[in-house]
């Protein structure tokens, strides 16, 4: 139970740490990510990921927050086993033409 409380606090800090400006920048930058880009290229565009999920030997997924502290959706960049982008799932409003509300 003691471990659970710090994890909840960390999650809350991450959610409130994503400002509207960061969300807008993540949305703008996500549409620049192209299939076949390297991890280094994506990091240059998007910055360090908020989260990283390993998919065994099949690659990994980087996540970036999008939205306000109460309404978040991750932006997901999926990499294949060779470390190249296989797909990018941008938030629905990630056209870069509309700023998210909140914060």
TrEMBL record:
The keyword Signal applies. The keyword Signal applies. Keywords: Membrane, Signal. It comes from the Bacteria. InterPro entries: BamE-like, BamE_dom. Residues 26-87 form the Outer membrane protein assembly factor BamE domain. One of its GO terms (cellular component) is outer membrane. It holds the Pfam family BamE. Residues 1-20 form the signal peptide. This is Outer membrane protein assembly factor BamE. It comes from Hymenobacter cellulosilyticus.
